[in-house]
Amino acid sequence: MDITNILKRSFSDDIIDIKQLFYNKIDSLGLTKEHAQKTLGMGNKILDPILDGSIKQPNVFNIIKLSSFLEINIEDIIIYLVSKQDREQVTRLEQANNLTFITKNFDIDRLTKAKLIHSKNDAEFILNRILSFFGFENITEYEKFSAKYQNILFSKTKRTHDDKMREFAILSAYRTFQITDNPNRYNREDLKNLIKKMKPYCQDVKNGLINICKLLYNHGVTVSIQTHLTTSQYRGATFVVNNKPCIVLTDLNKMYPTIWFALLHELYHVLFDLETIERQGYHLTGQPDMFLVNENAADNFAQDYFFDEKMYRQIAPNIHNEYIVNNYAKKHSIHPSFVYRGFQYFISEKDGRDYWKAFSKYFPKVEIATKGLSPLVWEKDTIPEKAMELKKIFELEIIQ
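User: That's the sequence. What structure does it adopt?
Assistant: Structure tokens below.
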């Protein structure tokens, strides 16, 4: 008994005329109306308003009895009654349906904090903003999309507020990739060859990441950036959309080396876990995984790609000498921030020392690298506009 479906059918031609059906029924049984009323336990003042659709608040037991007598579904009677109501009554039902839809699917408090919506008290505004954000005309379109991908992407367990935010971010990414619809062929061997050549690009803070994402797009792998959504708490995710690998990255820690680390981590999953990810729907980095996708292997791959333990041992005695660090980074075709970040990681892992707050002046702002990829900003963007913008970006020539 879905309100959206009831409203939709009440404005269609798919309506059973309950009054005509009632009189056809008693004629076929050889009953008078009075005999039928007595059998149903409903007098004229109760039965007639139901049959002509003028009743405002029908008794549920009377509806059950009538549906049994007529041998039709209760929903058919309700649709008939809704179709007979005046506009004011239908509007109230629509408003109730909108509110139910919103509270069921979205964490309004946190979406307000993320500035995706600007009023928590106007259900019509909230609904229109969410539908336009995803690029849907009505609730039915969203629910078809959500139902299809909820079955693919999420478990059936009861969701918490944090789950709702995470699901909102993930469905947003999925919808972005769905509309972008990368036309290029994906080939695993071609991707492996590209990854071997990626490292030097990280030296160019402004254009390196966008150029790599363009090359990945040409190899059938689509990458998008999301501004981190409060409480969603994930650094990256890998999907298979329209039979192509897709990666979404967030600016969770707002550090330049971290966004590259996240990209290489997800590319490891594309190379080695794509079939598993396609079966389960997506892989969210940093979340418990029941499908044995190897997070440690992906972390090690991403870390060692830029800066491994051997490099840590070599540079550690001179980490405070900026000149030596810069030359060491240049020798290994990486940005100096990767040296400092690698040092922080290995001195914590191997020696148990905390250097996480050191060297901050050597880390470029991540926004410099991601700006050219036009990150999804919850406050102002819509997914259809963002997807088309990404296509234009990826189809431009490589920036020199």
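DSSP finds 21 helices and four strands in the chain.
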